[in-house]
């Protein structure tokens, strides 16, 4: 919910059992959990140019065992993500097909096993890179996943 005046009803949690008040997790309403039809997809942005994308490299097989351990450690505040070294890298070629130089952001999203079941998110953002691309040129963006 947003601060300030709003035409939307807000729950009054001042005199209620705290367990009955929303905690702001919005499960099912963020890019990570929402499985319905999207009006605007996560990461959608406007640009003065247009781009085409192609996967340049990706691993042939990936183990998610270390990712599960990372999620548990972060959830219990035992460790931060910055301590984990990136072990998998992806690259994408971006071509500016428009007539103007422009920036774009490449997002790395993954779908974990069991997505949308038992609180497992539909997708997770694992990396991003902002890239400046001149009109008609192609550049490679690199994303690293822990």
Plain-language structure description:
Helices cover 8% and strands 29% of the residues. The chain is mainly beta. The chain has one domain (18-145): Immunoglobulin-like, CATH 2.60.40. The strands form 2 sheets. The chain has a 3-stranded antiparallel sheet with strand order 1-2-5, with no helix packed on it. A two-stranded antiparallel sheet has the order 3-4.
Short structural description:
This protein has 146 residues and is mainly beta. Helix content is 8%, strand content 29%.
Q: Main beta sheet, described? A: 3 strands, antiparallel
Overall, the morphology is globular
Radius of gyration (CA) equals: 20 Å
Secondary-structure element pattern, one letter each: EHEEEE
Fraction of residues in β-strands: 25-35%
CATH uppermost class: Mainly Beta
| Total count of strands | 5
Q: Tally the structural domains.
A: 1
**Largest sheet strand order:** 1-2-5
Helix count, per DSSP?
1
The CATH architecture assignment turns out to be Sandwich
CATH topology: Immunoglobulin-like
Estimated helix fraction: under 10%
Summarize model confidence as the mean pLDDT: 76
**CA(first)-CA(last) distance:** 32 Å
Low-confidence stretches: none
Q: By helix and strand content, what is the structural category?
A: mainly beta
